[in-house]
Amino acid sequence: MTDLVQFLLDVAEGRFSFNSAPRSRIVCFVSKEPQALVADFMRRVASFELGKFRYSDLEQEAASSKYDSSAQQGLFGDSEQENVDAAVCWLQDFPQNSEATFLTPTQRQAKYNELMAISVKNTASTYFFCVTQREFDANPGVLEGLGVMVVKIPEALDFELFSACAYFFELPSTCSAEALYDLRPGLSLDDSLIFIEHGACVGRKGLDSFASYSKNLLTSNVQMRDLSEFFWTKDAKKFFQAWSSLSAEYPEQFWVSYWSNQFFLAYFFIERASSGVKVTPVGQEHALSPNFTWKQGWKKYSKSDCVELHNRLYEVDCELKNGSSETALEMFFSGHFLESSR
Questions:
Q1: What is the pLDDT of residue 282?
Q2: Between the CA of residue 62 and those of 27, 29, 196, what are the distances in Å?
Q3: Residue 56 near residue 90 (C-beta atoms within 8 A)
Q4: pTM, to two decimals
Q5: What are φ and ψ of residue 286, in 5° steps?
Q6: Per-10-residue mean pLDDT for the chain, 342 residues long?
Q7: Residues near 16 by Cβ (< 8 Å), separated by ≥ 6?
């Protein structure tokens, strides 16, 4: 497994060619939590090296690989046309989120084998995708065994990696990576990229004011998925700690909609799971929380529980629309946890 610093240094110093990568033409980024900006960052990195970049999916790549581009190059009669299809390709549909957790080992292996077959056929492209650490751990040895180059993204960026990322943003002389990093050290990759992008527009004199408002640019350390997990597992202490971090980031209307959707999804998931059908969630159902959908976690709830929760939330919504404070939501949550403790 290669660390991200080494990978970026290899790119910057010419040891990694996007059009004919010497070690591998399939690169998998692995991170504990999904990093939404990895694809956009790789677009910047590719552009820095004058490489083309495109977003694609397995179906599109499979369709294009049916045609042998090398056999068609004679039609152009131009040596400069040899790399006409060469590009950095980000596979936007490849397993890269919690939904992939619910693929069977056979389904996972089939996806990786399909990608390898496409790579063998289309030697002009380098393929990139991202998976979570959980998805990677569910496939021990599969990716590296296939010859995929695995690049590890750490949870928090140290200065060396932060400055390596900043290099590809070509920071102006009025802003240094060191000055930016000192303002908010130890950020995730997503937050670091946001910080660098905005920091590049700030001069030395504006760093103090930038430090004060930059907090509003960055995401909370608590993930929405964590909040859901603490709710469904009825861990009141962790839930309210997470709630105190997240509640102010969105208006009351959002939270009513969010929890309404949770109860709606839970109802139909329980209905399917209790009918004897094999539970392999797909689509949006993974949004409930890991502990709700995995194994037998769903058995802690019934459809009537979800109906009751939704009915109470409807009452809260009416209260909020008639001038009640946001404490109505907190009372709703308290009722949920107090009931479970009886």
A1: 45
A2: 18, 22, 36
A3: yes
A4: 0.62
A5: -70, -10
A6: 88 77 78 86 82 81 65 36 61 61 70 84 83 76 79 92 90 80 86 84 73 66 78 91 84 90 87 70 58 73 93 92 82 87 54
A7: 7, 10, 22, 23
Q: Using an 8 Å Cβ cutoff, are 24 and 148 in contact? A: yes
Angle CA(19)–CA(130)–CA(7) in degrees, nearest 5?
Answer: 50
Question: Dihedral angle at the C-alpha atoms of 44, 48, 52, 53, nearest 10 degrees?
Answer: -10
| DSSP one-letter code for 296 | T
CB contact at 8 A, 280 and 104: yes
Tokens of 317: 């919504």
C-alpha to C-alpha distance for 250 and 340, rounded to whole angstroms? 27
Q: How many CB atoms lie within 10 A of CB 187?
A: 21
Half-sphere exposure of 175 (CA within 13 A, CB side): 24
Closest by CA position to 307, among listed 276, 270, 254: 270
Mutual angle of helices 252-273 and 303-321, in 10-degree steps: 170
Q: Assign residue 278 a region: left if phi > 0, alpha if psi is -120 to 50, beta otherwise?
A: beta
Note the pLDDT of residue 71.
Answer: 39
